[in-house]
């Protein structure tokens, strides 16, 4: 592998990381929104969301990507590969996030909620100050796990023609006729990316623990 | 829009063949990787430090690779080592090897959670080695891990969609062929997604049934 090959792999890594981060940034609040709709048992919307989440959880990222990229233009929404990739990753991760958020919300202790009610906290404040901080803490490990799963699902964007780590590695292998070195390099890069997420979670958690004891 | 689904219905044989291929690919990989995963789990829990460390590195590195990259490694990488398989064999081998690592990790987790008294009782009755793992550890460990194992099977079904990229004729591939033939991406891919959903809901139902049986047996 030449220097240029390494550069193109790292460019791929940049694409993988930014697409994943975009998917996470959009998928986390979207998932929370979906979970809240189910938690509050909004009529009509709640069963619709439940069906949608179940469908999306069963959807393979590749198939979803193909649907977004090829089907949206037929209803008049032409979409570039990069936004299509972000939409695909967001859709596939938000369904899992919704389930994680919902699990944390269901486990939330009723007493605290009632206590907040008893001191007359308005609904929004109750949610923001009492429910959300604890739900975030409870959901964090599962959410980070889902983030690493998202990174591992991200090569699906290859079918849209986006050049991420995996695709860059395939190209290098095709050019040099020696596919194994770029694949192994890609493996190392993916491991580093996944490790980065785990490390970030550990940092956040240990900081929070220090604050809690301080 | 409705006519498009009519065309899909008309050409349903194509999609159903893809569905059947996805089903067999996933079922076979699930079964084989469960067995292989059980062996790997035994290696992970082995008292021999070298064996358990080496297996640990192998399993962890599998869990860091995206499935597509691994499938490429098998498909493009093995020929340079002198092994030349068709895309079907490559896809199946990739699915099996990749998921064996995940199954091993799940079973190890369940093994760790078993009560120590039970394992000691097994030892006291003279079970050791493979017999100990097969008769004492695995039955309760597998029952305990059933929900997670079910999730992993769903993951296998979804991962098998990646195999369309190495030209395995599975469900997503069939949907791509369908959309290229009649140019109706929406109906083709939505139908494929619905069929994936049917498969996954089926797995969830099965997990529920087996879980209820396990509960009864206890």
3D architecture notes:
The complex is a heterodimer of chains A (214) and B (218). Chain A has helices at residues 3-39, 45-58, 61-71, 81-107, 110-118, 123-153, 165-176, 180-213. With 214 residues, chain A is an all-alpha fold. Chain A has one domain: MetI-like fold (Orthogonal Bundle). The longest helix of chain A has 37 residues, at 3-39. Chain A starts with a helix and ends with a helix. Chain B is mainly alpha-helical. Chain B has one domain: Orthogonal Bundle (MetI-like fold). Chain B is 83% helix and 0% strand. In chain B, α8 runs antiparallel to α9 (185-217). The longest helix of chain B is centred in the N-terminal third of the chain and has 33 residues, at 12-44. Chains A and B meet through α2, α3, α6, α7 and α8 of A and α4, α7, α8 and α9 of B.
Please name the defining characteristics of this protein:
heterodimer, A: 214 residues, B: 218 residues, mainly alpha, MetI-like fold, 9 helices
Q: Which spans of chain A of ≥5 residues are poorly predicted at pLDDT below 50?
A: none
Q: Any low-confidence stretches of chain B, pLDDT <50, length ≥5? A: none
**Rg of chain B:** 20 Å
Q: Give the helix tally of chain B.
A: 9
- The CATH superfamily of chain B is identified as MetI-like
Helix content of chain A: over 70%
Question: Biggest interface: chains and residue counts?
Answer: A-B, 39 and 40 residues
Instruction: Based on the coordinates given, report the CATH architecture of chain A.
Output: Orthogonal Bundle
Just give the CATH class of chain A. Mainly Alpha
- N- and C-termini, Cα separation of chain A: 51 Å
CATH homologous superfamily of chain A, by name? MetI-like
Structural class assignment of chain A: mainly alpha
How many separate domains of chain A?
1
How much of the sequence lies in strands of chain A comes to under 5%
Straight-line N-to-C gap of chain B: 52 Å
Radius of gyration of chain A: 20 Å
